[in-house]
Design a protein that fits this description.
- By secondary structure, this protein is α+β, with helices and mostly antiparallel strands.
- The protein folds into four domains: 16-37 and 243-465, Vanillyl-alcohol Oxidase, Chain A, domain 3, CATH 3.40.462; 45-117, 2-Layer Sandwich (Uridine Diphospho-n-acetylenolpyruvylglucosamine Reductase, domain 2), CATH 3.30.43; 125-242, Uridine Diphospho-n-acetylenolpyruvylglucosamine Reductase, domain 3 (2-Layer Sandwich), CATH 3.30.465.10; 550-586, no CATH class.
- It contains 14 helices and 27 strands.
- The longest helix is centred in the N-terminal third of the chain and has 19 residues, at 17-35.
- The chain is globular and about 70 Å long.
């Protein structure tokens, strides 16, 4: 196991006011969160007499670039849902579906005239114990589904780590946990039935409900549909007898991580790995099933998803912005060091008895260990604390890149990232280590047309995003090069619900069954009422015309200095490890 001393940085001053403030803020924030509930996120759809806007829950788009629509409808039954689609189909209007969560980062739900929200279509959760299945309305939240299944002694074996999603939205964008066993870590691969409302001929009432099962031709297109085929009405998941999980985090050296990930994934059913390159630290999650009668009542309350005091969040954001403005790499590294040390101290939010962490392993019921999101729940009247990224208080703001690699290519990617670390120095990676470093998860090969065609490794990394679009970032060139190494050197596939636009360039070439999905769409939605300009740009990998500063927001890859920010000293330059990369790097003079 690694030592706390491992988290120190050579030649950095032992005390820095910004870092000390940040670490104290973490402690105070956790304490304050224990005393108050969280203010639930705002509704992503806001309407006035003149129309409606759709915003993203992270603020990635919203105040910056809200999506405008004429109207929003809120069906409560399948017939009301069918009627809403029929009305749009009859009038030949563009229509998109959205849930009450709206956590998708790409603008898949933008560009329509009518929005259909499933927020109020969430009353039915039916468990069939004989078949070990559960069927839920599309707007049902993941937490409600998991708890209802548990009441019948059954468990959903896979789920994303964040529970703030609806069942319809989660499967539509390929949400996942981590596992190569059984049906795998992707939630959509545990789906055995989908009821979907699609456009239809006038003789069929302009819309109809199709009831799809695993043997149906359209099923594999519908499992990950991105909202392009129709509006999901109900989803049926396969369940298993209830079980417990046993979790231990091993904080250790990152030496050999590129060789060890395969064995780790095979040995632990739900294992993952967090990598903090600036700390030379790997955190192996030893996560396996335990008998339902095993001792323990543990809870997974991931630190990043806990509620945070508003004043603390604002202060942390101010500290991060100050480090960016001063180009203070040392400050960011001490912040990263403090945060990683705190995560080790608190087991990243695992709690043995529901209140505190007392030691490994942490054993608990699957329903309480597989997914989390405690910052979601509280009375509307409580304004004291909330999810740290809530845009209403201009809290944490970050880009999130998620690349999916065939297992056989992933080791080479990790080696390239290590080479880049050697070239720029470990400190350049502190900006991501302040968040969650690099998170490795494992997803099994899928039959879904837009799913992963083989056993894959998913890597997520978050990094600072400025309040104003087009603002350069400290060591932003590093993240641009990592991004391009992933998506262009190794042709990693993007997660459909995350990523900057650049990750989707020519995306169709990376999915062997992409043409089958396109054929299914033409067959089910010949008029294209579920398509839009913004969603087509993502799904078909269309690159915008390049403009000033476009590379800084991930809208393009720079080819000229103006695509960066030369007035701020950022010029378009070659990658340091991947020679074909073009990144916006700080320099006193242009070297492009």
């Amino acid at each position: 196991m690694s030592k706390i001393s491992q988290f120190s940085i050579k030649n950095h001053p032992p005390k820095m006011s910004i870092a000390n403030f940040y670490f104290q803020s973490i402690i105070l924030g956790i304490f304050a969160s224990a005393l108050t509930g969280a203010m639930p996120p705002q509704n992503p759809v806001q309407c006035t007499q003149t129309g409606c806007t759709l915003s993203n829950s992270y603020g990635v788009w919203g105040d910056r670039q809200p999506c405008h629509v004429t109207a929003a409808v809120y069906p409560t039954t399948e017939e009301e849902l069918r009627s809403a689609v029929a009305d749009a189909s009859r009038r030949k209007l563009k229509v998109k579906a959205v849930s009450k969560f709206s956590h998708t980062i790409p603008k898949l739900a933008c560009g329509s005239t009518i929005l259909i929200s499933t927020e109020r279509y969430n009353s039915s959760i039916a468990v069939d114990r004989a078949k070990s299945t559960v069927t839920a309305d599309a707007g049902v939240g993941l937490r409600e589904l998991i708890d209802r299944a548990a009441e019948e002694g059954l468990s959903l074996a896979a789920a994303p780590y964040w529970e703030g999603v609806s069942v319809g939205g989660a499967i539509s964008t390929g949400a996942h946990g981590s596992s190569w066993r059984g049906r795998g870590g992707a939630l959509h691969d545990h789906v055995v039935g989908i009821r979907m409302v699609v456009a239809a001929k006038e003789s069929e009432g302009f819309a109809k409900v199709v009831d799809l099962r695993e043997s149906d031709e359209l099923f594999n297109a519908a499992k990950v549909s991105l909202g392009l085929l129709g509006v999901i009405s109900k989803v049926t998941f396969s369940l298993e007898p209830a079980f417990k999980r046993s979790i231990t985090f091993n904080f250790t050296s990152d030496v050999g991580i590129e060789e060890e990930f395969v064995e780790h994934a095979k040995r632990y059913e739900f294992g993952d790995i967090q990598w903090y390159p600036s700390r030379h630290t790997a955190v192996y999650r030893y996560d396996d099933r335990a008998p339902v009668n095993a001792s323990g009542d543990g809870v997974n309350d991931f630190i990043g998803f806990q509620s945070n005091n508003v004043l603390i969040v604002k202060s942390i954001r101010a500290s991060e912005k100050a480090a960016e403005k001063a180009r203070n790499t040392n400050a960011k590294c001490v912040l990263a060091s403090s945060f990683v040390a705190y995560k080790k101290l608190t087991a990243n939010g695992l709690k043995n008895n529901g209140l505190t962490f007392t030691g490994y392993p942490v054993v608990g019921h699957q329903r309480r260990m597989q997914t989390s999101g405690s910052c979601l729940y509280s009375p509307e009247s409580d304004k004291a604390s909330l999810c740290a990224w809530d845009p209403r208080i201009k809290g944490l703001s970050f880009f999130e890149s998620t690349a999916v690699f065939p297992a056989g290519k992933f080791a080479a990617f990790v080696r390239d990232v290590k080479r880049l670390r050697d070239a720029v120095g470990p400190a350049a990676f502190c900006g991501a280590d302040m968040y969650n470093g690099f998170l490795f998860r494992f997803v099994k090969g899928s039959d879904a047309h837009l799913g992963q065609p083989e056993d894959s490794v998913v890597v997520d990394f978050n990094y600072y995003r400025a309040d104003e679009a087009g603002t350069p970032r400290l060591h932003g060139d590093v993240w641009e090069e990592v991004e391009q190494i992933a998506f262009f050197k190794y042709l990693a596939r993007p997660h459909w619900g995350k990523n900057r636009k650049v990750a989707f360039f020519e995306v169709g070439k990376k999915f062997p069954k992409f043409s089958k999905f396109v054929e299914a769409k033409k067959r089910v939605d010949p008029a294209g009422i579920f398509s839009s300009g913004p969603s087509d740009e993502i799904v078909f990998g269309i690159e915008d015309q390049k403009g000033d500063g476009c590379a800084l927001e991930g809208l393009c890859i720079c080819s000229e200095d103006r695509h960066c920010s030369p007035r701020d000293g950022y010029f378009c330059q070659r990658g340091l490890v991947y020679d074909e990369a073009r990144v916006c790097r700080y320099s006193s003079t242009s070297t492009s």
